[in-house]
Every structure is written in C-alpha cells, then in structure tokens.
Amino acid sequence: MLLEKIEVCRQEMIQLSDEYELTSEPVILSSMKLDRLINEYLNYSVN
Questions:
Q1: Which of 23-29's residues contact partners 24+ apart within 8 Å by CB, and which partners?
Q2: Could you tell me which of 10, 15, 18, 20 has the fewest CB atoms within 10 Å of its CB?
Q3: pLDDT tens digits for the chain (47 residues)?
Q4: Rounded to 5 degrees, what are φ and ψ at 28?
C-alpha cells in the first residue's frame, strides 16, 4: 500500500514538473510529500 502511494506521488511530481518549473511551489510540495512517504517506508522497513 505504501509503495503504491509512493509511486502515485512520484508520477504526480513528474507530471507537475512537465507543467511547471522545478522550483515552483506545486513541484516542491509534491517532492516534499514524496520525501515524507519514502522516509515513512524506510522507517517502516527498518523496524
């Protein structure tokens, strides 16, 4: 489930980066969301 969320978020970020500059707020927010999901996955995997 978490891996699916990560993939969806990754695709969303890619789509946003096609529409906006990489330094735009929508892309950065999406990137931050993806980072949180990846960190959550890594923390879950380690424990």
A1: none
A2: 18
A3: 999 999 999 999 999 999 999 999 999 999 999 999 999 999 987 76
A4: -65, -45
pTM of the prediction? 0.88
Dist. CA 17–CA 47, nearest whole Å: 33
Which residue ranges make up each domain of the chain?
2-42
CB-based contact 4:41 (threshold 8 Å): no
DSSP secondary structure of 1-47: -HHHHHHHHHHHHHHHHHHS-TTSHHHHHHHHHHHHHHHHHHHHHH-
What are φ and ψ of residue 18, in 5° steps? -75, -30
